[in-house]
Amino acid sequence: MIDFGDFYQRIAKGQLSHWLETLPAQLAAWQKESLHGQFKQWFNAVDYLPHVTPERLDLLHSVTAEAAPNALSEGQIQGITTHLRTLMPWRKGPFHLYGIHIDTEWRSDWKWQRVAPHLSSLVGRTVLDVGCGSGYHLWRMVGAGAQLAVGIDPTQLFLCQFEAVRKLIGGDQRAHLLPLGIEQLPALGAFDTVFSMGVLYHRRSPLDHLYQLKNQLVSGGELVLETLVVPGDAQTVLLPGDRYAQMKNVYFIPSTDALANWLEKCGFIDVRVVDVCPTTTEEQRKTEWMINESLADFLDPRDATKTREGYPAPVRAVLIAKKP
C-alpha cells in the first residue's frame, strides 16, 4: 500500500499541521474502500522498480535523471522500461529517466514555459496543484524552489505514475500526491500558491471551484488558473452540448473577460490574463506512451479551427490573481 507517513511528518510542524486532524483517516478509508480494480497491478509495477539515486537530477529545466556510468545495466534499464509501460497511458510529462524518454500525450513542459515567467517566486513556498495528473508540474515547482509541492488528483493511475518517478529520482520528499479531489479538502488557508490547470471546465459549478481554490490560499496568496476559453466579451460563456472535443464532462467555457469577472466576483484581486494560446496537435498528441485517441481525433477533419462538434477548437488562457 502507498505509505503517506512521510507526508504526515513533513506537515506536522508547519502551516498545514491542522490538516492532520482529518487527512489520515480520509486516506485510510480510501485505501480500504476505494481502490481501483487495477490498482494492485499498478502498485506492483512501482514496487518492482529499483530505488535509484541519480548522479544528475534536473528539475529546473525538465524532469531529467541521469545515472553514473555503468550504474545501471542494460537489463535493469529494460526492466525499468517494462514496469513504466505497465503504467500507460502517460498523459502529462515528459520525463527523461536514465535514457528512457517517456514521451507523454501532453507537452506539459510547454505549458510550464508559458506559466512560469508570470509567477511570483516559488522559492520557499508551500504550493498546491489541483488536478495535478502524474505530478509533472509538481517536480517543476520543486525545481523552481518550492519547499513543499502538494498535488491532488483522484485518478489512481496518476498516483502510481508519480510514485514511480519519485522512486527513480532518489525518493525526493519535497513533492507529494494525494488521491483526493478539491471538494474533499477542508478550507486549509495554508498554501502560498495554488495552481488549477485544466480543471475549471470539468466543474459543474465553476464559481464553487474558484471559492474552493480561494479557501486553500493564505491571505496574499497567489492563484494560477489555466483553463479553456472562447472568443467574446465579458458576457460570453459557452455551454457545450453532450460533448466538447469528444469529452463528456465539459461544462462552462468562458471568454477571458468573463473569467476575469468570475474571479473578481469570488473576491480575488489583481486579476491578470497573462497568456492565451491555442492548443496544437504538436502539444497534445498520440505517442508510443499514450496510444489512445488524442487531439487530432477530436478536431473537425475539414476545419482544424473547430472541434468535431463544431465548437471553437481548444484555446487555453492563464490568469493570475491574489487572495486579499
TrEMBL record:
What is an example of a Pfam family matching this protein?
A: Methyltransf_9
- Can the keyword Lyase be found in this entry's annotation? no
Whose protein is this, by species?
Leminorella grimontii
Protein task:
Catalyzes carboxymethyl transfer from carboxy-S-adenosyl-L-methionine (Cx-SAM) to 5-hydroxyuridine (ho5U) to form 5-carboxymethoxyuridine (cmo5U) at position 34 in tRNAs.
What processes does the entry annotate via GO biological process terms? Answer: tRNA wobble uridine modification
The record's annotation in Gene3D superfamilies points to: Vaccinia Virus protein VP39 (3.40.50.150)
The entry lists its GO molecular-function terms as: methyltransferase activity; transferase activity, transferring alkyl or aryl (other than methyl) groups
- Return the EC number: 2.5.1.-
Q: What is this protein called?
A: tRNA U34 carboxymethyltransferase
Q: Does the keyword RNA-binding apply?
A: no
Instruction: Please list the reactions this protein catalyses.
Output: carboxy-S-adenosyl-L-methionine + 5-hydroxyuridine(34) in tRNA = 5-carboxymethoxyuridine(34) in tRNA + S-adenosyl-L-homocysteine + H(+)
Question: What enzyme category does the UniProt record give?
Answer: transferase
Q: Where does carboxy-S-adenosyl-L-methionine bind?
A: 92, 106, 111, 131, 153-155, 182-183, 197, 201, 316
Question: HAMAP family, from UniProt?
Answer: tRNA_carboxymethyltr_CmoB
